[in-house]
């Protein structure tokens, strides 16, 4: 994948960065002439943390592609001063806006690169990106005056009773509130709720036989990572009224043994395509070949009959594009005769 080369600013001393951050968010900052928000007007609760903004952020940095595309889907490209870690081709709908945003790092962003961009908010889909050995913890960054936003899908403990898609919609709502575009967030949510409603209308072709699905994300050192409980794939199965073969495993993406896959004997295997990462075995074709060659798994009916549904791997994680994979799985299972 082509990635724009962007010259990085010389690392800035923390005091200079804080001056920029404070200037964008402090109570004493000059008000935006087009804003009617007063001090303390913006407040949301995000993954157990209260975020407060005196006005809508103007300098957002996203830490990976999923959060980047979510902000672009909300029309916030002009509010972004940096992004990092693209893992797939940017969706065509967002390509033009994306090309105007500096790619601060084609891999994981460093603390120095984040600070040099002088953002007034940092956004990610994965809380693990805020770590001491990466850009810093949320606590450290908040002490420095930089608010951080983590997808609610990654924080189920703070959204009890909410499904992964509901938590994703909470992201849209909160981001819409933070950036002052609630109507865009509401429209995006309504559009994706309609996709869910359409999928919920599908029913098993055999009312006495609930099909099971295994979601294969990646293979590392020969062992597969599959979808466990409470992630986007788990929610796709719930919406369609089918079984997630590993839903009893509490980890979102557990590593499992091939023999355990054979024991669970899924009716369909959804295969995530991660070709753009460029690693051996990341493409859907590579994974399907391994399944056909494995001495045990190759004997499963799903493998022998090629009951595979290929989806973009990035859409198996929480992203504005996850609703598209719901559509792909729905149509795929219909074409296999398992849903109608």
Detailed description of the structure:
- This protein has 340 residues and is an alpha/beta fold.
- It folds into two domains: 14-192, Nitrogenase molybdenum iron protein domain (Rossmann fold, 3-Layer(aba) Sandwich), CATH 3.40.50; 203-335, 3-Layer(aba) Sandwich (Rossmann fold), CATH 3.40.50.
- 34% of the residues lie in helices and 16% in strands.
- The strands form three sheets. The protein has a five-stranded parallel sheet with strand order 5-4-3-6-7. Strands 8, 9, 10, 11 and 12 form a five-stranded mixed sheet that branches. Strands 1-2 form a two-stranded antiparallel ribbon.
- The two termini are 37 Å apart.
Number of strands: 12
> At CATH's second level, what is the architecture of the largest domain?
3-Layer(aba) Sandwich
Order of helices and strands: HEEEHEHEHEHEHHEEHEHEHHEH
Q: Termini, distance in Å?
A: 37 Å
Q: So what's the CATH class of the largest domain?
A: Alpha Beta
**Biggest sheet: strands side by side, in what order?**
5-4-3-6-7
Low-confidence stretches: 1-37
- Average pLDDT, rounded to a whole number, is 89
Taken as a percent bin, the fraction of beta residues is 15-25%
Largest sheet: number of strands, sense, barrel closure: 5 strands, parallel
Number of helices: 12
Q: What count of domains describes the coordinates?
A: 2
Q: What is the molecular shape?
A: globular
Helical proportion, percent range: 25-40%
- For CATH, the homologous superfamily of the largest domain is named as Nitrogenase molybdenum iron protein domain
CATH topology of the largest domain: Rossmann fold
InterPro entries: ABC_Transporter_SBP (IPR050902), ABC_transptr_periplasmic_BD (IPR002491)
Family: Belongs to the bacterial solute-binding protein 8 family.
Pfam family, one: Peripla_BP_2
Organism: Saccharopolyspora dendranthemae
